[in-house]
Design a protein that fits this description.
The chain is mainly α. It has one domain. The chain is built from 4 helices and 2 strands, in the order αααββα. It is globular. The chain starts with a helix and ends in a 5-residue tail after the last helix.
């Protein structure tokens, strides 16, 4: 199976599973999935978040899923339990479509490693 086809199948599986689990079957978009990863990584699941914290959660998720690619490295957890990352390399300038593919691939790998999908 071609790499692009496999990525699409795995991405669709991630979206389907998360949508059923968290959105009553309504299809989640990329940003929603990034947000869910941020909440998971923070570990404070049963809490309401203000808008600025939602952006921080998305940042945590992006750092986490791109860490294996060498862009970020986990640094420490602050007194409030929020993880912090160091920038190791600047993200390359990508077109919107390329950026989306990179994020989807990173997210799929995150869920493969967590054994949420196989």
């Amino acid at each position: 199976m071609a790499r692009d086809e496999q990525l699409k199948e795995r991405w669709d599986l991630v979206v389907e599973k998360l949508s059923n689990q968290f959105a009553d079957g309504d299809r989640l978009d990329l940003d929603s999935i990034i947000y869910l990863i941020g909440v998971q990584e923070l570990g404070q699941l049963h809490r309401e978040y203000k808008k600025d914290h939602k952006l921080d959660l998305m940042h945590i998720a992006i750092c986490k899923v791109l860490e294996p690619y060498g862009f970020y490295e986990f640094d420490y957890v602050d007194d409030d339990g929020w993880p912090h990352y160091k920038v190791l390399a600047q993200l390359p300038h990508l077109k919107a479509g390329e950026q989306s593919i990179l994020m989807k691939e990173a997210i799929v790998n995150y869920f493969l490693e967590a054994e949420y999908i196989d």
